[in-house]
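Hey, I'm writing a tutorial for new members on how sequence and structure tokens pair up, and I'd like a real worked example in the thread rather than a made-up one. If someone can provide the structure for the chain below, I'll link this post from the tutorial.
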Amino acid sequence: MRLEGKVAMVTGAGSGIGRATAVTLAREGAAVMCADLNLGGALETARTIGAAGGQAIARELNVRAEESVRDALEATAAELGALHILVNNAGIGGRDHTWDDLIEVNLNGVQYGLKHGAPLIEAFGGGSIVSLSSILGLIGIPGATDDGTGYTASKHGVVGLTRAFALNYAKRGVRVNCVNPGFVETPLTAPLWDDPDRLESTTARHPIGRLGQPEDIANAILFLVSEEASFITGVALPVDGGYTAQ
């Protein structure tokens, strides 16, 4: 197992990519703090991990609040004995959210994780942080999430934070990367696929010929936090079926 003896915290672990990531890291031997605004979802993820023989605990987390992020990280170290891996996954999107909502959750929430997580990981001997950006952190798509500006700005910001923290911690034993998923079938994106024409056209934009699954992203995150990626930091990795190669 690639992560035996490691301790991880995954935000937004109650569903979708976060749940798939928490389960994947636990399967590879990590003890996992499943943190989510939806405590019920986080508890369900932790139960799933436990039923498979892994170790996991759950905690309510609001990434809009810096103290909530700090406290969750400290609780992970206190309850599981260390912190080696942080996955900043919690995020929102869609037409129901304002600019402030999108920046507070998608960008500020990641910054709080990096700010408080990186020194804690350093204190426990080093490790890895992976944050979730998006293909909209690399490109713009007309009409995405209403006018697209808030979501696109927040996800571009994650790439910038990743590069800055990667350089700050490169000699301190903490690698910092982000992944940039294409369109993935999750509860967050489910309303987009109610329109069959939109589903067909969006799928067609991915050269690989399908939408992503949460496990596709979880496997990329697993690679980045493992020792197999020990020479990789400051990277924004598209996991998008070729979308941004066009």
